[in-house]
Specification:
Structural class: alpha+beta
CATH topology of one domain: Heat Shock Protein 90
CATH class of one domain: Alpha Beta
Strand order of the largest sheet: 2-1-5-4-3
Number of helices: 16
Radius of gyration: 58 Å
Distance between the termini: 32 Å
Shape: rod-shaped
Largest sheet: 5 strands, antiparallel
Strand content: 15-25%
Length: about 575
């Protein structure tokens, strides 16, 4: 249960981390760099648009100022006035020359509603271009008197004025002696002059404020938004600034030599940062929406993963405590349902196997007890052999002593060896040499044996009684049927494994032998064929789980070769 609690906590932590980490990362990243970058790009778009529109307006204003200045610098009106004063041309000729100049110079300018001039000695005679005659008549009716009064203060400069709803550019006409002889009046078409600024304001749903010289042209606005807190003078030029609750403003100024211009835009936060606010709200909504999804996932993990694991852990604990045949109430077509059914079947099968094995062990134990009662104790035999060996040495019978020692080695090998299942190759070779001694007595000169062992392989580990059964198989199935031959044993390390090769030159493997050999290599020792080989193959599978292998084949000379590879390092 402690392990289960750890798994449950880990699963909960994993689910929370899967939610919190993306949420925190997205919140920090999008709430920081992304939104700041988006805000900067939005403000840059507005300021860039303002700068471009202001540049177009400035160019148009400078064009009007240059046109008004040309009336003096071109010299046509000044020369005509000087010739009239000198009496070389008549008043009517002067008026004709002045009207032609006004018509030619100003009729094609799109930002002018009309162009007109008059002389100071006859100010009521207004000379205008034909295309702007109606606008000139409106000017003369509503603003002419005020403009005439301004002539005394203008000197050589120009000025934009607004009178009775009309906007005019006014300049004194100067003689060669820099004395005014008349005035030039240009009617300014503010719709054309501020077209780019108005289009910008409309695209941003903003209010446009424009101040030209000392005249506020506040009737060219797109909305009726409230004014700016603290006035335009409180704002930093070229910087978007908060202008009140939910309002932002951008101001640009141009104080040139000929005019002073201030342009301002006032717009709501929803229009300026609405996209950013909507994105932030969407992100917050998504994160909040993920909470019930997170709860649903946690509930699903509990019902479909942690709870079934808890049931399995509890059942496994009961089996560990000795309760056999425990089943779990887990069904379903998913993996955990299949696992629960397999667990229940395994538990029942385990109970059956243990009960059967227990009964078999009891029967085997009884049989062994009966067999032991009819046999002499192997330890007693070994002790008796030791006594015989010493007596043979005392009497000088070396052959009998050697036979007794070899038999003792074989008996010790067949006993428990302190219940070890793995021994060193060096120990196995002692048993092999003892066996070679006895079969040498049996066959005499008809049997030749050879052992070739590389020194670095002596400490390698092998299962108990691995080599002796292989040598015995070579003797019984190869040497004995042939009446003699040669048996060689070679042991060496190869690719992290101990390779042992037993080769005999006795009777070769016949086709009918192959079936019994293949069955033995699969661990099938039925029918008494190659029992030792089958026993070794079965033990290798049990101990090394498929990492060891044993092969039986023939070399080019027809000798039978048994190759055994035993891995080293991980038993």
């Amino acid at each position: 249960m402690r392990i289960f609690r750890k798994i449950r906590v880990q699963l909960v932590v994993m689910v929370l981390v899967c939610y919190l980490v993306p949420a925190v990362v997205l919140g920090v990243y999008i709430g920081g760099p992304v939104l700041r970058d988006l805000k900067a790009k939005t403000e840059s778009t507005l300021t860039t648009g303002m700068d471009y529109s202001l540049m177009l307006t400035q160019q148009a204003l400078q064009r009007l100022v240059d046109l008004s200045r040309d009336a003096i610098y071109d010299g046509e009106l000044t020369d005509a006035s000087a010739r009239r004063d000198a009496g070389t041309i008549s008043d009517s000729e002067f008026l004709r020359l002045a009207r032609n100049y006004i018509e030619r110079k100003y009729s094609r300018e799109g930002t002018l509603s009309f162009a007109a001039c008059f002389t100071l000695d006859n100010p009521d005679l207004l000379l205008s271009n034909r295309a702007g005659s109606d606008a000139a008549a409106a000017y003369q009716a509503g603003a002419h008197e005020a403009v005439k009064a301004m002539g005394e203060t203008l000197d050589t400069g120009c000025r934009f004025v607004k009178i009775e709803g009309g906007v005019y550019l006014v300049r004194n006409l100067m003689s060669l002696r820099m004395k005014p002889f008349g005035m030039l009046v240009l009617g300014v078409d503010m719709d054309a002059l501020t077209a780019s600024l108005s289009a910008l304001a409309q695209s941003w749903d903003a209010r446009l404020d424009l101040l030209l010289d000392d005249v506020a042209l506040d009737d060219w606005t797109c909305t009726n938004a409230p004014g700016v807190e603290g006035g335009w003078d409180a704002l930093t030029d070229g910087q978007i600034t908060s202008a009140g609750t939910g309002l932002y403003a951008l101001k640009r100024t141009d104080d040139s030599r000929d005019y002073a211009l201030r342009v301002g835009l006032v717009l709501g936060r929803a229009r300026l940062y609405g996209g950013i606010d909507a994105f932030r709200l969407l992100l917050t909504g998504l994160l909040v929406l993920l909470i019930p999804i997170l709860v649903a996932i946690a509930w699903y993990v509990y019902r479909r993963i942690t709870k079934p694991i808890a049931i399995l852990a509890e059942a496994a604990g009961r089996i560990e405590a000795g309760e056999l045949g425990v089943t779990v109430p887990m069904r379903g077509d998913d993996e955990l349902g299949s696992l629960g059914k397999a667990f229940s079947n395994m538990s029942l099968r385990l109970k059956q196997l243990i009960e059967r094995t227990y009964k078999e062990e009891i029967a085997l134990r009884d049989a062994r007890i009966q067999a032991m009662q009819s046999r002499i104790n192997p330890h007693f035999i070994n002790n008796a052999l030791e006594s015989i060996n010493w007596q043979a040495r005392i009497e000088g019978s070396d052959s009998i002593s050697a036979m007794v020692e070899s038999l003792s080695v074989l008996l010790n090998a067949g006993m428990s060896r302190n219940n070890r299942r793995m021994v060193s190759l060096k120990e196995e070779l002692e048993v092999t040499r003892a066996y070679f001694y006895f079969v040498g007595l049996r066959f005499g000169d008809k049997l030749q044996t050879a052992i070739d062992v590389e020194p670095d392989s002596l400490e390698a580990t092998v299962p108990v009684l691995t080599l002796q059964p292989l040598i015995e198989n070579a003797v019984e199935h190869g040497i004995a049927p042939a009446g003699g031959g040669e048996i060689s044993l070679r042991c060496a390390m190869a690719e992290g494994a101990l390779r042992m090769t037993v080769m005999n030159s006795g009777r070769p493997v016949m086709p009918e032998d192959r079936t019994r050999i293949d069955a033995a290599l699969k661990g099938d020792g039925e029918n008494g064929a190659h029992l030792g080989l089958a026993n070794i193959a079965a033990r290798l599978r049990l101990i090394y789980a498929g990492r060891a292998d044993i092969r039986v084949d023939s070399d080019a000379d027809g000798r039978t070769r048994v190759t055994l590879n035993v891995p080293q390092g991980n038993e």
